[in-house]
UniProtKB/TrEMBL annotation:
GO terms for cellular component: cilium; microtubule. Belongs to the TRAFAC class myosin-kinesin ATPase superfamily. Kinesin family. Its main location: other. InterPro entries: Kinesin-like_fam, Kinesin_motor_CS, Kinesin_motor_dom, Kinesin_motor_dom_sf, P-loop_NTPase. One of its GO terms (biological process) is microtubule-based movement. ATP binds at G65, P66, T67, G68, T69, G70, K71, T72. This is Kinesin-like protein. It is found in: Cell projection, Cilium; Cytoplasm, Cytoskeleton. Pfam families: Kinesin (PF00225). It comes from Rissa tridactyla. Residues 169-181 have a biased composition (Polar residues). The gene is Kif19_0. Keywords: ATP-binding, Cell projection, Cilium, Coiled coil, Cytoplasm, Cytoskeleton, Microtubule, Motor protein, Nucleotide-binding. Residues 162-181 are annotated as: Disordered. Residues 1-309 form the Kinesin motor domain.
Length: 313
């Protein structure tokens, strides 16, 4: 359960700085090394959330970390090693079929990306930029997004792979196919009892799966011009997410914290899943390379803060 981060530039024989070492230990709920399989990661992070979604709770899974540490691999995976998206949906459909005798259910999903603070629909990229709106009940809606209703996991895999090809990817010095945008898969499960009761009850569970853009320092990617601007946008939305996480993890402290969800489109979209009625899992990715020590350190600190958020679902 612990990660020990050692500074590659430290000299073990340097007695003067021995007690000022930058070696740090972080404790998390779960830590995986390079030998962990997709199945293991899925079972110990996400599998337990599915029952909740079916009983009408919301759930969110984040993949966070610098470029090239495997966020898209964890979430989407490959054809022979599918990631969290597919495994979650397969299990979700199995669990829903088990309740099919008593419940009518519909599953609708949408797949979008947030790039440079604009929202694009990945399932129909030609529709241009979309607006984020709030309805009368305070739910955040995306106007004009494509919703697909299907309960076939194979079909979904094809949709997601197709959608992922539409994502904004650019080569940087850190990674040839670096995703420069946040991809959000929204799955909405609506259930209605088949028994004709007086009070019709509907259960709505929302599942967000978010593959965030890489959170690395600009120096690492040697970005200039357009890439640099884009990186600034990415870091801005991740900073907004970090600020929300900070404010939420200090809640109940001495001072009342204001949580600014409106700082970026990403935090506004995930408002419910951060501080609200939701069970949230963050999967933080780090690279074992000594060149990315700074990135790993920042990622671990970020994830450690996120661990301190307590919400009542």
């Amino acid at each position: 359960q612990r990660v020990v981060l050692m500074d590659p530039s430290e000299d073990p024989d340097d007695i003067l700085r021995a007690n000022r070492s930058r070696e740090k230990t972080f404790v998390f709920d779960m830590v995986f090394d390079h030998r962990a399989t997709q199945e293991e990661v899925y079972v110990s992070t996400t599998k337990s959330l599915i029952g909740g979604v079916i009983s009408g709770y919301n759930a969110t899974i984040f993949a966070y970390g610098p470029t090239g540490t495997g966020k898209t691999y964890t979430m989407l995976g490959t054809d022979c090693e599918p990631g969290i998206y597919i495994r979650t949906l397969e299990d979700l459909f199995k669990a829903l079929e088990a309740t099919a005798e008593e419940m009518d259910y519909t599953v609708s999903m949408s797949y979008l990306e947030i790039y440079n603070e604009v929202i694009r629909d990945l399932l129909s990229p030609s529709s241009g930029f979309l607006d984020l709106r709030e309805d009368s009940r305070g739910n955040i809606q995306i106007a004009g997004i494509t919703e697909v209703s299907t309960t076939n996991a194979q079909e979904i895999m094809q949709l997601l792979t197709k959608g992922n090809k539409q994502r904004t990817q650019e080569p940087t010095a850190a990674n040839k196919t670096s995703s420069r945008s946040h991809a959000v898969l929204q799955v909405m499960v609506t259930q209605k009892s088949r028994r004709q009761a007086i009070g019709e009850e509907m259960r709505i569970g929302k599942l967000f799966m978010v593959d965030l853009a890489g959170s690395e320092r600009a120096a690492q990617t040697q970005n200039q011009g357009k890439r640099m601007k884009e990186g600034a946008h990415i870091n801005r939305s991740l900073l907004a997410l970090g600020n929300c996480i900070n404010a939420l993890s200090e809640k109940g402290g001495s001072r009342a914290q204001f949580v600014n969800f409106r700082d970026s489109k990403l935090t506004r979209l995930l408002k419910d899943s951060l501080g609200g009625n939701s069970r949230t899992v963050m999967i933080a990715h780090i690279s074992p390379a000594s060149t990315s020590f700074e990135e790993s350190r920042m990622t671990l600190i970020y994830a450690y803060r996120a661990k301190n958020i307590k919400t009542q679902v």
